[in-house]
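Sequence in, structure out. Go.
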Amino acid sequence: MKTISVTKAASKGIVMGKAFIVVQQNLEADKRLIRESEKEVEIKKFEKAIKDTVADLKILAKDSDIFAAHIDVAEDPDLHDSVVQRITDESKNAQLALQEYVDTTVTLFESLDDEYLRERSADIKDVSKRIMCNLKGIKSNPFENIDQEVIVVAEDLAPSDTANMDFKYIRGFITEGGGVTSHVAIMARSMEIPAIVGVANFKEEVTNDDYLILDALGAKIIINPDEATKQEYVKKAQEYKEMKEKLE
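Output:
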């Protein structure tokens, strides 16, 4: 049994379950430079990827304002013009042009002093991830095989990730990145799912075979608790549930 104290409990509660470590898809851009004759093809690929991304977001936007805002990011003329310029003038393929634009823009946002504005760089990352998936023809869902109660462990979680989850089995979130104003924190609070964020290098501490207690009231994570500790936290979780019901 191992206990880790944390500082960023983004959404309160106490939950238990097996760790589910999110394996990130390989979205590294193709570094190949292109010939003059390929430029128009690459521009059309990029514009189709934008169109497909907007179509996907419009479906999700029916249930969430976050995705409505993401449509604006995907349709941003600066995104389109900057990527096309890199394809036309620098002979970058669409994937590489997109990645360079995203890296530059995200670096700009993350250099800002305001935490809320820094977190908005996650919007750009999430939308660009969708565009890159469409460019690469990737449609897989890393959460589709979850069939038991789990606590999701990830480097970070974007709105696109939570849109792919079956919340029948998702009990909580632990992320290495993000802050209390990040999308995963906001969505966790709105859905009343306990979440702890900003736990540096946590994925190195656990495997999918480990059992976790996520205590977002006491600001701690317990890895592979003994039976007495499990029962103690079952009681604490029930007491918290009853307190919330009384307050409501």
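Check: The chain has a mean pLDDT of 91. The first strand starts at residue 2 and ends at 5.
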